[in-house]
Amino acid sequence: MTIHWRLKTYLTTKHGIYGAVALQKIIANKTGVLISVQNLCNYLEKKPKQIPLQTMELFVTALQ
Predict the structure, then answer these.
(1) Which of 33, 49, 54, 63 is 20 to 30 Å from 27 at the Cα level?
(2) 3-class DSSP state for residue 64?
(3) How many Å apart are CA 51 and CA 10, to the nearest integer?
(4) Hey, how many other C-beta atoms are within 10 angstroms of the C-beta on 27?
C-alpha cells in the first residue's frame, strides 16, 4: 500500500496556507510553539520517514 503525502495541497485547499512561514505563524499563534521554517519546509516538500507525535499534535491543534 502506497501512502501519498499531500500536506502542502491540503493546507492550500482547506486552510489557504501557501508556505512554511505562514504555517509557522499560525502554529506559533495558536500553540505558542515555534517550529523552524526549515523543518516545516521539509514536511511540506517531501514525505517524512516519521513524524514525532508532538509535531502532529501541533499541526492538529493549530489547524483544528
Answers:
(1) 49
(2) coil
(3) 17
(4) 20
pLDDT tens sequence across 4-14: 899 999 999 99
The candidate with the shortest Cα–Cα distance to 63, out of 25, 6, 51, is: 25
d(CA 2, CA 53): 21
> Hunting for cell 514525505 — which residue is that?
47
Domain regions of the chain by residue span? 7-63
pLDDT value at residue 2: 82
H/E run at residue 34: none
Residue 40: is it exposed, middle or buried by C-beta count within 10 angstroms (0-12/13-18/19+)? buried
- For 5, 34, 44, the CA distances from 9, given in Å and listed in that order, are 9, 22, 9
User: Residue 35: helix, strand or coil by DSSP?
Assistant: coil
